[in-house]
Amino acid sequence: MIGRRALFSALGATGLLFTRNAAAQTNSAARPFNGLVSGLWTAFIGWFLYGAAASSTSQVMLSELLEGVAVSRLMKHQPATIDGDLPVARLVDDHFMSSAERAFPVVDGGDHLLGIVTLGDVRKVPREAWQTTRVRDAMTAAPQLVLAAPEESAAAALAKLANRDVEQLPVVDSGGRLLGMLRRRDILRWLELQPRRGDPRMRERHV
């Protein structure tokens, strides 16, 4: 696994300033030094995923961090889905306003993916038309989406997220059946859980 020193070297002054500021705002750990290191690492990963993932250098480094990890391991299984015939008003009231999700997959009567509906899609519908507009008429249809396969590498999926500048990818099988959703924050959580070289807590486990 790639070392933290190499990652920070690639980060550069702008990203390092970002991580320092983020860590300073969030660090309230009982052990200040370890908390600072942890905060810097988490903020750095977030910057890499959301701000630098499109660059060739960062993609190489993230590929190493995600080596051998399949999409199926990181994706959200059994995500909440939306019926294409649901009125946009119900989508807003029953789903967007009652959850932290910013996008939902839209399926037919089974699990076949029809598309994705996002907050951006809803904003394009005039407020007075929410009651009469169906989700299928507001969503981004499946043929326009970038998809991921469950056996695909998480690094390849991250490249798709970066290239299209989207927050999530539907994960489907060869027949177009929805299996899950892979979101940037799922990848971030995985990276946060990985041991870092030089972490004193790793040494403690082997004492």
In short:
The protein contains ten helices and seven strands. It has 207 residues and is of the alpha+beta class.
Give a quick set of tags describing it.
3-stranded antiparallel sheet, 207 residues, CBS-domain, alpha+beta, 14% strand
How does this structure look, described?
It is a single chain. This protein is of the alpha+beta class. 49% of the residues lie in helices and 14% in strands. It folds into 2 domains: 4-68 and 189-205, no CATH class; 71-183, CBS-domain (Roll). Strands 2-3-4-5 form a 4-stranded mixed sheet. Strands 1-7-6 form a 3-stranded antiparallel sheet. The protein is elongated.
Task: Detail the poorly predicted runs.
Answer: 1-34, 201-207
Provide the CATH superfamily of the largest domain: CBS-domain
CATH architecture of the largest domain: Roll
Sheet-strand content, in percent, reads 5-15%
CATH class identity of the largest domain: Alpha Beta
Which assembly state applies to the chains in this document? single chain
